[in-house]
Amino acid sequence: MEMLLIELNKESETPLYEQIYEQIRNDITEGKLVVGEKLPSKRKLGEFLDVSQTTIEIAYGQLAAEGFITSKPRRGYFVQEIGELAYVQPLEEMAIVIKEERKELEIDFSPGKIDTESFPFKQWRKYAKDTIDEAAQHLLLLGHPHGDVELRQEIAKYLYHSRGVDCSADQIIVGSGTEQLMPLLIRLLGPKAKYAIEDPGYPLTHHVFFHNNREAIPIAVDEEGMDVQALQQSEATIAYVTPSHQFPTGTVLSAARRTALLNWAASNVSNFIIEDDYDSEFRYTGRPIPSLQGMDKAGKVIYVSTFSKSLMPSLRIAYMVLPPVLLKVYEEAFIHYSSTVPRLDQHTLARFMADGHFARHLNRMRKVYKRKLQLLTDSLRQFAPTISFSGDEAGMHILINVHTDKDEDALSKAALAKGIRVYAVNEYRKSPKSVQPSFLIGFGGLADDQIAWAVERLMDAWNIKKGDGPCN
Fold it and tell me: Residue 157's pLDDT is what?
């Protein structure tokens, strides 16, 4: 049969397998899929929808368990006769959910926003225009499944000079966002892999592991980063870390822990490290923190990064650097895959990088964000000792601690009531929850002249007055 038309919302809280299950079930009950019709194989449907075979298997398994489809050995899945099933379609009015009306935000301290006014529109427009040309007709066809070599070569050169990552263009896989690459990586590492995640840590990664039915073991983060001793005592075989600027605490993984983590990875053939270097470009004091991949001598680090912070989130270009042992497995497992990033975008970015505009843009943005950070910390210091902060050496957000008898939930609601959104650290924890109220304060998306005003508005919402002591 032709491929099923299934629309997936990867931002929805509804698991992907449940979305697939519901749409196939509805097509069967509405007669769009007839009795006896063969469904696509798990592999083909997974590739078409860009989800794991495990996700398809769970959806098909639920449909089979409910009698909508049946499995025939070595032939596949077929639509079952449901004429005698006592299936009741829910009444339309019963499905209506009344959503609470949200107060319009006046201030958003999101850690994911960038300074859009500083984007080099003129240069980017030139390269985009040059790329979209009749002389580039070949770019309308599918390119290399790992991403076009021109872009991968530029990424390899950039990583070597800026992050100390030692790799060839062949080791780089380009994809449309970390959330697209991670499921591929999860399949590559196999069903027996057990993942250690930072706690608190990046929530998207937690969801990716959950939706792909992989066990994730939270490992506590302290002032030196992930507790490697706790990792060694766990059953984890894969450690997912953000060592250069831990999300959300801003902690840098200490030299001793880096060595211990690399030794842990080298101690077992099944052990690997996933190094997410999501905003390493923006460090404001001292030299850049070297990547774990550059220190790795055993081929145990999988390096992952993106252009979301350095250029724009909507570009949807991320990449991973696979160690040689995994590259061979990847090429065999995903031989039929095509790159999910449009070639026109790849070549626009490649030319932008090759002519030095990307490096110049980063240098300019470091100054922009360093200035914003200074304005933010200067404003926060006025509210010491009730407010203290940390993680201000890198990145586009800092962590503030609120020394008060109110909890995070009460403070979040008080801010939202004033049209201000803050991001509580406990939302990024698995367990246990911290009693000390702490919040991520992103400054990338705020204009210079907004920052002091935004801080004062937040403090007013929390009824915190200016103090007379140093903050840090």
Answer: 96
Q: How far is 101 from 210, CA to CA, in rounded Å? A: 30
Let me know: does 242 contact 204? Beta carbons within 8 Å: no
Q: Are 178 and 306 in contact (CB under 8 A)?
A: yes
Q: Tell me which residue of 327, 275, 328 sits closest to 304, measured CA to CA.
A: 275
C-alpha pair distances (Å), 146 with each of 132, 303, 370, 379: 22, 15, 35, 46
Task: For residue 170, give both structure tokens.
Answer: 């062949």
What whole-number distance in Å separates Cα of residue 11 and Cα of residue 13?
7
Read off the amino acid at residue 134: E
pLDDT of residue 463: 95
Helix (H, G, I), strand (E, B) or coil at 292: helix
How many Cβ atoms from other residues are within 10 Å of residue 327's Cβ? Answer: 20
According to DSSP, the residues that pair with 173 across neighbouring strands are: 320
Residue in this structure with the two tokens 């499944």, named with its chain if needed: 145
Position 103 scores a pLDDT of 56
pLDDT at 46 (0 to 100): 84
Which residue's entry shows tokens 């006046």? 106
Tell me the pTM.
0.76
DSSP string, 88-157: -PPPGGGG---PPPPPPPSEE--TT---GGGS-HHHHHHHHHHHSSGGGGGGGS---TT--HHHHHHHHH
Contact indicator for 310, 124 with CB cutoff of 8 Å: no
Which pLDDT does position 175 carry in this prediction?
94
CA distance 469 to 466: 9
Give one DSSP letter per residue of 316-382, joined into a string: --EEEE--HHHHHHHHHHTTT---SS-HHHHHHHHHHHHTTHHHHHHHHHHHHHHHHHHHHHHHHHT
Instruction: Look at the block and give the residue holding tokens 């053939």.
Output: 269
Residues of the chain with pLDDT under 70: 1-2, 82-103, 286, 432, 468-472
Provide the 8-state DSSP code for 389. Answer: E
H or E stretch at 61: helix 53-65
